[in-house]
Write a structure and sequence with these properties.
237 residues, alpha+beta, six-stranded antiparallel β-sheet, three-stranded antiparallel β-sheet, 2 helices, 28% strand
């Protein structure tokens, strides 16, 4: 019976993790540039916990294998704002502090620097991009930033060999110890990239995970009641 409780408990724990992950995805469905997370499971034999060989009575437990980020692109939608940019392809914009993002609803701070929604400066060829003076700002597909036709800097677009080595640093930024390489992607001025969350699909997965969690809970309760019954019967003997 105790083995059964362990198996049911492992299933309930994993489903709770999956429910939390899906809930987080849904909460960020409207966050520009957000990349959804997914959980991967693995099975192992109960006998492996204490190094025993498999037997006919071996039972299978589930465990969390990994949490992976889905880096597929979201939809690109037009805003018409000249400071908004969407990355057409793979890659990230470089931010001050060793962070990287695909969220492109940029703005100018009070000092004239190009920053993201959190006020973190966007990096160019030689550091933060300073948009000095007044005039029409143009950002071409190569990332060149110009004012009235005069180039002042270039947005630093980078990519990485292993995207799964990137760690989330907030809702829309990432950080990594990897060395970046130049991205071959282009920018679209006046557009932003939405999250890659498919709300209906996430809701279906959430309902399924909640039902499986409830099933595991009921299984634990049944094993517990059976154990209590056996204990009481033995006490009467």
């Amino acid at each position: 019976m105790y083995k059964g409780i362990y198996i049911a408990l492992s299933g309930a724990t994993l489903k709770q993790t999956q429910i939390d992950m899906i809930s987080q995805n849904l909460a960020n469905a409207s966050t520009l540039g957000y990349k959804k997370d997914k959980v991967a499971f693995q099975d192992f034999m109960l006998s492996q916990l204490n190094g025993q060989q498999e037997s006919r009575e071996a039972r299978t437990l589930s465990d969390l294998a990994a949490v992976r980020t889905d880096f597929s692109s979201g939809n690109i939608v037009r805003t018409g704002n000249p400071l908004d940019v969407a990355i057409d392809g793979t890659g990230f914009m470089s931010l001050e502090g060793g962070k990287f993002t695909r969220r492109g609803d940029l703005r100018l701070d009070t000092a004239g620097y190009l920053v993201n929604t959190q006020g973190v400066k966007v990096l160019g060829k030689n550091g933060p991009i300073l948009v000095s003076g007044k005039g029409t700002v143009d950002i071409n597909p190569a990332g060149d930033v110009s004012i009235d036709g005069v180039q002042i800097d270039k947005i630093r677009l980078v990519d990485f060999a292993d995207l799964q080595e990137l760690k989330k640093a907030g809702e829309d930024s990432f950080e990594t110890q990897q060395s970046p390489v130049t991205s071959k992607s282009t920018l679209k001025q006046g557009y932003v990239e939405t999250s890659n969350i498919e709300v209906v699909r996430e809701m279906v997965q959430l309902i399924a995970a909640m039902r499986e969690f409830e099933m595991s809970q009921k299984a634990i309760q049944s094993f517990d009641e059976a154990t209590a019954k056996v204990t009481n019967e033995m006490a009467r003997m």
